[in-house]
Every structure is written in C-alpha cells, then in structure tokens.
Write a structure and sequence with these properties.
It is a single chain. The chain contains 31 helices and 32 strands. By secondary structure, it is of the alpha/beta class. The protein has 5 domains: 125 residues, Serine Threonine Protein Phosphatase 5, Tetratricopeptide repeat (Alpha Horseshoe); 184 residues, Alpha-Beta Barrel (Aconitase, domain 4), CATH 3.20.19; 162 residues, Aconitase, domain 3; 144 residues, 3-Layer(aba) Sandwich (Aconitase, Domain 2); 154 residues, Aconitase, domain 3 (2-Layer Sandwich), CATH 3.30.499.10.
C-alpha cells in the first residue's frame, strides 16, 4: 500500500496549495488502485474509483495501459465492477485517445463476440490517433474478409470521426479581459521562472498573469456564465517572444472548456486577441487547442486628407481608437458571417480567424485531430482502393504564371507532401511538408513528452533526418526541480529516438549546449525544414520555425507539419561597414531602418525574412537569423554564397563528429547519417550540380528592404524604454538607439554576454578587449558584474586550443564546474566576471536572474518585463540589448561608454568580417 499512501500524502500536501490531486500517469499506482476497486470491503475503494475514472492520464502513459486492460476485463465480463458497466467502460475507452486503448478496442472489434465487436467498432470509428501497428491490423483483417474491419475502414474513408462531430456554433458570445497594454509576452502567461511546473497543469495555471487577474477572470465568468472570456493584448500583439504551449494551456485552463470529463486540467478552445493580432508562433499553438485568434484592429494610424500618416512630436504615427475593448465589454463572434459585432453593429471582418482550415480545427477541438484524421482517411481509402471522398476543406493552391520563387517558396515546394508532379505553388498556398530536423528544449520537453503520450506516439517518424533534446534552459542550476524532471525527460526522448543532451545511462558527458546552436550544427542542408520547441529556432541554414511543444510532438510523431507558404521580405545591404562596428549593430540597424522606411509599419511581422548575408558562415549569420524572432518574423532564410555554405557545412560536420566521439549517436547512427548528408551536399555544390539555395530573379516579395551600412556610425542598443508614457511602446524591440544617446552616463548594474546570440567570435572579442584594456591601464577592474555564458562546450574547447580561455579564466572570479554544478540560483553578484556553464543562463530567466530593479546590458534577445530582471520597489528593472564589446566595456566602466572610450577599447580588434555580397544571388 506504500505507493497509494504516498499518493494520499501528496494529495494532502497539494490541498495546502489549493490544488487537486495530481493526475495519475504511473502503472504501479494505478495497479494498486485497481486492486482496491476489486476489493468491495476496501476502505479506499470509493476514492480509488474516482481516481481510476476521473484522474488517470490517457494516451501511452503506463497508467493508460493498465486502465485499458482493466476496462477490457470489464467488457469481457472477466471483472465485475458495479459502478463501471461494459457500456461505461466503452465510453471511458473512447476518451483515452490512442495507444493501449486502441489496441484493446481492436482486440474487441476483431474478436469473436459479435455484440462486443460492434460496440468496439463504433468507438474505434471516433478515434484518429492510430499508428502503423494499428492500421496494419485493420488492413490484415480486411484482407482476410473481416466484416467489422471493412465497416471501420469505410467509416474512416468517409471521415465520420469528423463529420459526425457537432458543428461550430454560429454565434459565440465573449466578454473581454485586457491582460495588458502593448505586446503580451508568453512570459506573462507562463513565466520562465515557473518552467519546472509546466507538466503539472493545475499548479502551473496558478502563475498566469497574477492572482488578481485570475480573480478578475473568475468574476467575469460568474457575471457572464453564457460567455467566454477573451484575453486581449490592448495596443499590442498577443503571444510574442516565445512559442509556449504552456501559455495557451494556461489561457485555456482559465477561460476554455474541459476537453473530457475524464481527463483533468486539459482544456481547449481559448479565445485570444490583440490590437495587432497574434504572434505567428503563438497562433499555431492556439490552433493546436482548437482556439480562436483575433486581430482586433481597434487602434489604427490616423491619416490626413491625403491619406498620409499623421505623426506626433516624436515623428511616430499617431494612433486613434476605432472601438473600445475595455475589460468587461461584450462582443459577439459570428463564425458563419466571419464578423465581430458589438450589439448589432459590425466592427471588423474575421475571415483570417475562420478560414476553412481553422474552422476544421475548431470543430475537431484542435489541429492534431485534423492532421491524424486526414492520414487515417487516406490510409482507409487506399486500403479500400477508392478515391478519397472530399470531406475536408481543399487546400488553397496559389500559382502566378511567369512569377519566380522566393527561397522559402522553393523549400516548401521541394518538401511538399502530395503535390502533383510539376505543380508549383506560391505564397499563401496551404501545404503539408516533410520536416527534416526537430528540436525539443528542456523546459517545454516534458509537455512535448505528454503530447506524444496523448497522441499515442511511441517512436520518432522515420522521415525525420535528426532530432535533438536539449538541456540548455535548465543548465545554470542543477537544483531539485531539475534533478527530478530532466533525467526523466532525457530517458523518454532517448527511448523515443532523439539524440539527447544527457545520456540516460550516464555513459557520455552531459551537454548543456544551447538548443538553437546544436540545431544549427545538425542542419546540413539549406533546403531543410526545421521545427523546434522555442521561438529562437531560427537557423542560418534551411528555414526553421519556432513552435509550441505540441507542434514539436506532431513533427516528431509524423515527420510532417502543415502551414501556408509564408510571404517573404527581402533584405539586402549596400555600403561599407566601419571598422569599429559589430555585426550585432547591423542587426539592430536593420530593424531601425526598416521601421523608418515603412513609416513605423513592421513589414517583417508574420513573414519570412530572406536575408542576403552571403559572406558570413553559419555561426556568425545566426546572429541575424536569431534576432528575427524579435523582429516578429515567422522565420528567416540566409542566402549564402557557395564557398561560404561549404565552409558552414564543414564546421557542422566537425561539430557533429565531436558529438559522435562523445558517444551521443544512437543505434540508427543518426549523427553519422547527417555527416553523410553534409558530404553529399558539399559534393553537389562543388560540382555545380546544385549550387547554394537562392531565389529566382523574378520572385515577388511583400516588401524589399535595403540596409545602408554607411549610416551605421555608432553601436546600436535596443532599449525597453521602460518609462515611455505610452505603455504600449514599452518592452518592444522597436526602440533602437545609438550609443551617444546615453551620453556616457547611464549606469549599468550588470553585463551579460551569452545566450544563443553569441558565437565563438564574441568570446574571442571578450578576451581581446581584456588584453586591450590590460595593456592600456595595466589591469582590468569591473565596476559591474559581467556574466559570460558560452553557448556550447565546443566553443570553450576551441577557445582553450586558441589561447583565449586563459585570459578569461585569469579575470574571472567564478568558473563553472560540471563536477560540482550550482544547486541554487545566484541571487547576488560581485563586481567581477563569472564564467557560467554553457546554456541559456540569464536570457531564460527561469533560474538565474539579475537583482530586482537592475539595469542590465546584455547580448541576449530578451528585454521583456521580468524576464532577465524583475522590477523592484525603487525602480523598474530593464534589460538593454547591445553588442558584445559594448556590454563588456559597460561592465568594466559600470556605465554605458561614450564613443571615444568604445573606440579605444576595440582598437585593433576585428569585430566582424561582414561585407555585402559582390552580387545579388539568384537561382
């Protein structure tokens, strides 16, 4: 009874936190519970029944296997439980989604008892999470003449699992809740410092926004019981910054509907909105849960009689309110007319929220059911040797005669599934594509594992070339939470078929390398499609899409993703870099110049940035592609010269070989396979058979941006502008300022060089600056702490070989040790340099943080409120983003430097070798 008693003790502990019993996923506990159910005199029998029926996780959890087996016994009369009739047992099986439950249903449907077989068949017809071992059984039974198998296949071919679902209501009443003004980061919905609890959905739900906001949502629900609360980003975009499934899960938990009465804390159908719509990655996550995302357009640019934007005293467009969305406002969404109404007044068109495909997601309760449903329908029709009945919305296909292809259009056409030979599609077309590389990161990985279990997946799709599970987001502190979660995650993913940062057997050294850097290395074809569980899945080879944990799970299980071909914005460069400028300054200037060229409109938002960097190898080009997440782009593509791409692939090969040498390859030799693919690609480029990816000369773009390097005279800093009178303009990445703006006086409390934004060159710049200042002043003294976190161990090894690590060690007051990792997060910093373990560190904000109220200058990508630094009572915390040399010098001076100090510190240092390509690359 010890396991059950431990569970009861845990329940009592959770009561003190205001929590319900944690859902059961373990076979041992559920087996004990079943034993108690069978014992009519057991004092725990009543509670055990409730746990079994209402609190057991479905899918492929070990508990689900035990539950399905017991329900089979009840249906066959081998066990009798008064409270669970055979009919109720079938109902419970119907809510278990797949895996063991489908196995049991097939056993019964293909068995000898006709009545039971018919009941089982009726349930199977509603299920879509079937895999090869399930479909093979159906196919074999059909070929042997089994009538029930034929009936099931005919139902699947007609997609009755979808057509018999209730229709989407024509009218949905909503009441507004404004979560905040300006862009709403997913950190507000699911804080990074609570990442450890994401797989415990009820517990994690308590961290959404604030307790006060949660109370206000509950009050709105009590006042409007017939309406759904719609969460709003007023004057901003909802869900920027990250791709967190946990954020959508939290919104659904507080405002959505329960997916099944027998599965606790899994809700669906959240409704979210923003003045400027929903972040593309976040919108994909909303689709996963069958939710609705709305672009409110309730604030628009004021224009004069000529139609030109009216500018304010700062030269920015003046905005005016079209209609109010203040908390408590009631609207009606008409899904048939695709309009938003206030009373009877039509406000905006919602066609983009209710495309035929999105209507299917809403009807089915999420995009997974549609993806798997289409696969099972195709299988059934093929087995029955009939044409696929037209049930689902036909994919939108757009082709413009005589128009060439952008780089992303080329990649999507090459990887498309089911396209007729010779057919070519342009942007806006709906496609299913094969995914080449998949990445799962550690703070969302446990949820990805849960999603894989819920969709009954047990092994990675053979279509995927390579997949990696990182340990970078929990690298800084090996605390009790990490010790409990990470080994379990690594074992699950390793068993599933991923290359894992930690070896469950403990045979190779644990790696905490930043996931984006590893994915950048294992992407060995610039024609690849990459899906990763982080918004910064932005590779400088191929096209990569940051995704929620569910979409990552879908890519791992099926090897596919579905999305429209995105529009592209072309970015090219002219002029010449000044010697004292860093490439990061080019990145920031790109955003600033783009906003100037388009009167404040962010033309990058929701689109692919096709950047013609050309001369930079993948490590350095990554600095640009990584930042495109903050530009609100959907993705980015680096157009490279042949020789540069070959150099990048050789670097990738060497780093993959290091992973092999460490013992990280698996039985299928996935890593060796990637090296072989890289060799093949290099040979194609050298021979001229297939040059580096480039767009067609006649390709069409949404916009074209030309960045003038001659205009970049000073280092550029992205400022969160925390005291801007317009709240909506705080914590965006749109305020880019030159160094001289700060007059050499702005105090800096902490500097951070790290995260995915830096490469080996940045760490070499740190060491060279220390030498410069040592030579100029005799020694280096830090007037503010400087935290340095290399993104990968490979970089540290290379710095050691090249002599740069020595000076970093000499000036550091702390150096990480893998033998004795930190067990608690740092809360206080001294004025010295800290050499931290490779990984995300301060950028993630879930473990290490700056002191509250600090002004941080960082190379990271995150300036959101509370992410790197929280507010204090004395002042707001702020995270300004700058190049490595600016950050290092600021930590030494304790303030942002002036131009003279900056130029002296970087004298003689080659900060970047970037130069625009001599000619524009076209295919």
């Amino acid at each position: 009874m010890s396991i059950y008693n431990n569970y009861i003790q845990e329940i009592e502990e959770r009561k003190e936190q205001g929590l319900h019993p944690k859902p059961i996923d373990g076979a041992d506990l559920l087996s004990e519970i079943i034993t108690q159910i069978k014992d009519s005199s057991n004092p725990h029998r009543e509670d055990s029944l409730k746990f079994f029926i209402y609190n057991t996780l479905p899918g492929t959890t070990s508990a689900a296997g035990v539950k399905a087996k017991f329900l089979k016994e009840i249906i066959l009369g081998e066990s009798v439980v008064e409270e669970i009739t055979p009919a109720f047992a079938f109902e419970l099986l119907s809510h278990m989604k797949g895996g063991p439950s489908v196995g049991v249903l097939l056993d019964l449907a293909l068995g000898n008892d006709v009545a039971i077989a018919n009941e089982a068949a009726n349930v199977i017809k509603t299920q879509v999470f079937l895999y090869e071992m399930d479909t093979d059984r159906l196919k074999d039974a059909y070929k042997e003449g089994n009538v029930i198998a034929k009936e099931i296949l005919e139902s699947y071919a007609q997609a009755e699992f979808f057509t018999k679902l209730p229709e989407v209501p024509e009218e949905i009443k909503v009441v507004t809740f404004v979560a905040g003004e300006g862009d709403i980061s997913t950190d507000l919905l699911s804080p990074g410092n609570q990442a450890h609890s994401r797989s415990d959905r009820e517990l994690h739900g308590k961290c959404m926004i604030s307790p006060e906001a949660q109370e206000e949502i509950r009050a709105l629900q009590a006042q409007h019981p017939d309406k759904t609360v719609m969460l709003i980003a007023e004057k901003g975009t909802m869900g920027v910054g990250s791709s967190r499934m946990s954020g959508v899960n939290n919104v659904a938990l507080w405002t959505g509907k329960q997916a099944s009465p027998y599965v606790p804390f899994v809700n669906f159908a959240p409704i979210v909105a923003g003045t400027n719509g929903i972040s593309p990655i976040f919108l994909t996550t909303v689709d996963v849960t069958g939710g609705i995302g709305i672009d409110l357009k309730n604030w628009v640019k004021k224009v004069d009689e000529k139609g030109s934007p009216v500018l304010n005293e700062k030269g920015e467009p003046t905005m005016e309110e079209v209609y109010s969305v203040v908390t408590g406002t009631v609207f009606t969404i008409n899904t048939k007319k695709k309009k938003l109404y206030k009373d009877d007044q039509e406000l905006i068109d919602l066609s983009k929220s209710f495309t035929p495909q999105k209507m299917e997601f809403i009807k089915a309760g999420g995009s997974y059911a549609i993806v798997f449903g289409k696969k099972i329908q195709t299988f059934a029709a093929k087995t029955l040797e009939i044409d696929i009945p037209p049930v689902f919305a036909s994919s939108k296909e757009i082709f413009h005669e005589g128009q060439g292809l952008t780089a992303v259009e080329k990649i999507f056409n090459r990887n498309a599934v089911g396209l007729a030979p010779g057919k070519v599609l342009h942007a806006g077309s709906d496609v299913r594509v094969e995914v080449n590389i998949v990445g799962s990161q550690d703070t969302t990985g446990l949820m990805t594992a849960q999603e894989l279990e819920s969709m009954a997946a047990t092994v990675i799709s053979p279509i995927v070339d390579g997949a990696y599970q990182s340990g970078c987001h929990t690298a800084s502190v090996w605390d009790k939470k990490a010790q409990a979660n990470i080994p379990k995650l690594m074992k699950f993913m390793n068993d599933f078929g991923l290359i894992t940062a930690r070896d469950p057997k403990g045979e190779y050294h644990s790696m905490t390398d930043v996931i984006h850097k590893v994915l950048n290395d294992i992407t060995v074809d610039e024609w690849a499609i990459i899906i990763g569980g982080d918004s910064h899945t932005r590779m400088s080879k191929g096209v990569a899409f940051g995704a929620d944990s569910g979409t990552v799970a879908l890519a791992l299980a099926t090897g596919e993703a579905s999305m429209p071909i995105p529009e592209s914005v072309k970015v090219t460069f002219k002029g010449e870099m000044k010697d004292h400028m860093d490439f990061r300054d080019v990145v920031h200037a790109t955003q600033a110049q783009m906003l100037q060229q388009f009167n404040g409109e962010n033309v990058f938002q929701g689109r692919v940035i096709e950047v013609h960097i050309g001369t930079l190898p993948a490590d350095q080009a990554f600095t640009f592609t990584d930042w495109t997440a903050e530009m609100k782009a959907k993705a980015s593509i680096n157009i490279s010269e042949d020789d540069t791409l070959i150099e990048s692939l050789e670097i990738a090969k060497s780093r993959i070989q290091i992973m092999i040498d460490k013992g990280m390859d698996n039985d299928k030799q996935v890593l060796q396979g990637l090296i072989n693919k890289a060799d093949k690609r290099i040979a194609e480029i050298k021979s001229g058979d297939k040059p580096a990816l480039a767009p067609d000369e006649s390709a069409k773009y949404y916009a074209e941006v030309v960045i003038d390097l001659d205009l970049i005279a000073e280092p550029m800093i992205a400022d969160p502008d925390v005291n801007n009178e317009d709240v909506s303009k705080r914590y965006t990445h749109d305020t880019i300022r030159e160094l001289s703006y700060y007059g050499g006086t702005k105090k800096v409390d902490l500097g951070f060089v790290g995260s995915c934004m830096v490469h080996k060159g940045d760490l070499k710049i740190v060491s060279q600056m220390l030498r410069n200042i040592e030579e100029q002043k005799g020694a280096v003294e830090f007037r503010a702490p400087l935290v340095v976190a290399a993104p990968t161990y490979n970089i540290i090894d290379e710095l050691k070989d090249e002599g740069d690590w020595d000076i970093l060690q000499r000036y550091s007051g702390f150096e990480f040790s893998d033998l004795f990792p930190k067990s608690a997060a740092r809360t206080e910093y001294e004025n010295m340099m800290y050499l931290e373990r490779p990984g995300c560190n301060l950028c993630m904000g879930n473990q290490e943080k700056a002191a509250k109220g600090d002004t941080v200058l960082a190379t990271s990508t995150r300036l959101f409120q509370g992410r790197v630094v929280e507010d204090s009572e004395r002042k707001k915390g702020e995270s300004l983003l700058a190049s490595t040399p600016v950050v290092v010098l600021s930590a030494i001076l304790g303030r942002i430097p002036n131009m003279e100090e900056y130029k002296a510190a970087v004298e003689g240092i080659s900060l970047t070798n970037f130069a625009p390509p001599h000619k524009l690359l076209v295919g």
